[in-house]
Design goal:
2 copies of one chain form a homodimer. By secondary structure, chain A is mostly helical. Chain A is built from 10 helices and no strands. At the A-B interface, helix 1, helix 7, helix 8, helix 9 and helix 10 of A face helix 1, helix 7, helix 8, helix 9 and helix 10 of B. Chain A binds a DNA duplex (18 and 18 nucleotides) through helix 3.
DNA sequence: GTCTATACGATGATAGAC
DNA sequence: GTCTATCATCGTATAGAC
């Protein structure tokens, strides 16, 4: 029997290993050799299946973020529809919940998702331009949707104000997401919290922030 | 005359170049060759003057953060003293202003500080453990001071609540700091704001967040 | 088609001779 | 202080085995 061949699905193994290592070591810090080593496949397998390290990054992000974005979009639409039926403007808190809850809940849905959440929490601040670009590409349409919905909820606020306050909200959320990585929790001496507890902590904060003054 | 010798201060030149490149390319992305090239000194000068790349990082951070932390500490003390004299508890907004205003203002104090602010905004989320560790080491005592002051301002809130809300605040602030880098501003199509405008935007948000419910 | 072994050229940090 | 050598490690390309 050979060393590590006959994988049920090589691509999947690579994606899983890459997701974990990107999250813990960063895009630059995770070498293809480390990734393929963890996945027990050959070094060249990445280039065969994905073409390049950059394309692998895109695949890692895409696999998780497309379903996540769809869920967030659907939740947002529900909030807007419900408000419309009542002839009212949507509530800021409901909009924020529709975006934040699926994000934090996602950690607990399937194995590996935890690492992914840490990773995207860091991506926006990643020093590597490649990572930031790919990430912004996926978050941008979601952010614009959020902006529109929030403008309906807070019509008295200027576009500029809503834009920046949503940025602050993203900052708080991303920070929470990457702080919840095992390594960082240890460095800061925090005990673990589940998605529900985290949501209950962050939601009043960001809602009050958005509605301030 | 030789190519690049006879620097007024080699160490200073290296620190400046490293600060800029760490901020724009990240710790891993900025090679010693790029740093010494930008500083017009020999490749080996870093190892001669600082010992290693890691020690250079510490020096870069230390140079700016020690005076910044002292200023923040002093501002915080002033707020607490002023409240004590009046026989009242300090106001949450004043505490947050004492921490945030010097941070954002710092960008405009001296050349190079702008890059530094971007850099520390990113450091907390840096995938490289080295960077995170050094950064946490410098921010931790400041955070604890903030926590104490905030507990005086909001005695009805639990320690856990104050801890997390301050984390959200840090998230919003850090995100703002690294978003204000020239590259990211371009990627997001935002126009530049000065420290005063930014402070006026973020302060109501984080204050309302801290006081929520 | 899928996967492995191996090699290539570039670039990384650092150390020793001067 | 500088110059140069060293040695590890990077992403990627290729040739061939199953």
């Amino acid at each position: 029997m050979s060393k590590g061949s006959n994988h049920p699905d090589t691509k999947q193994s690579i994606l899983d290993a890459a997701e974990f290592l990107f999250a813990t070591q960063g895009f630059r810090g995770a070498s293809l050799r480390a990734i393929t080593g963890k996945a027990s496949v050959n070094v060249a397998a990445v280039n065969y299946h994905f073409g390049s390290k950059k394309s692998l990054l895109k695949a890692v992000i895409k696999r998780r973020i497309l379903p996540l974005n769809q869920l967030r979009r659907q939740r947002l639409e529900e909030v807007r529809e419900r408000a419309k039926k009542k002839g009212r403007t949507p509530d800021a808190k409901d909009i924020l919940y529709a975006f934040i809850q699926p994000t934090l809940q996602f950690r607990e849905t399937e194995p590996g998702a935890k690492e992914f959440v840490t990773f995207i929490g860091r991506s926006f601040a990643d020093p590597d331009n490649t990572v930031r670009k790919v990430f912004i590409q996926f978050i941008k349409p979601m952010f614009q949707l959020l902006q529109e919905a929030m403008h309906e909820a807070l019509p008295q606020n200027t576009h500029n104000q809503i834009f920046w306050r949503l940025q602050f909200t993203m900052g708080a959320l991303f920070h929470t997401m990457h702080i919840c990585s095992d390594v960082t929790m240890e460095q800061l001496n925090i005990s673990a919290l589940d998605a529900e507890a985290l949501t209950e902590l962050i939601l009043p904060y960001v809602t009050a922030g958005m509605k301030a003054k």
